[in-house]
């Protein structure tokens, strides 16, 4: 795998649809994704052979539910680009890990009394 493909698109649904198109179109795989502005802008990074990545990006541009803001294909990326995407992928993997069983939960308990309860004393 000697190429990275980047697609920046508005909205999570559009991004997931673009990713589905890219992975189904050619032999590529997701490296990572990042959401900015509360998910309004999503960057997806894929990898594969140069021709496969190029085909995948073009297919997402042509068949996605919305037009990408920006796209790019990097053939033979510099080691710093690889390091940067690996750092992002580590954050992605950590944030998508489900919580362990038996962990602590946020539980709100009520004592059954209401300290601010008003009573009508008839005055």
- Main beta sheet: strand number and arrangement? 4 strands, antiparallel
Q: Number of helical runs?
A: 3
Order of helices and strands: EHEEHEH
In CATH, the homologous superfamily goes by the name: BMC (bacterial microcompartment) domain
Task: Write up this protein.
With 123 residues, the protein is α+β, with helices and mostly antiparallel strands. The protein has one domain: Alpha-Beta Plaits, CATH 3.30.70. The protein contains 3 helices and 4 strands; from the N terminus they run E-H-E-E-H-E-H. The chain has a 4-stranded antiparallel β-sheet with strand order 2-3-1-4. A hairpin with a 4-residue loop joins strand 2 and strand 3. Mean pLDDT is 80; it is low at 103-119.
Defining key terms:
Alpha-Beta Plaits; 4 strands; 25% strand; four-stranded antiparallel beta sheet; alpha+beta; 123 residues
Chain-wise SSE layout:
Blueprint: E1 3-10, H1 12-25, E2 28-36, E3 41-48, H2 50-63, E4 70-75, H3 79-95
Antiparallel strand pairs: 1-3, 1-4, 2-3
Helix pairs in contact: 1-2
Short description:
By secondary structure, the chain is an alpha+beta fold. Helices cover 37% and strands 25% of the residues.
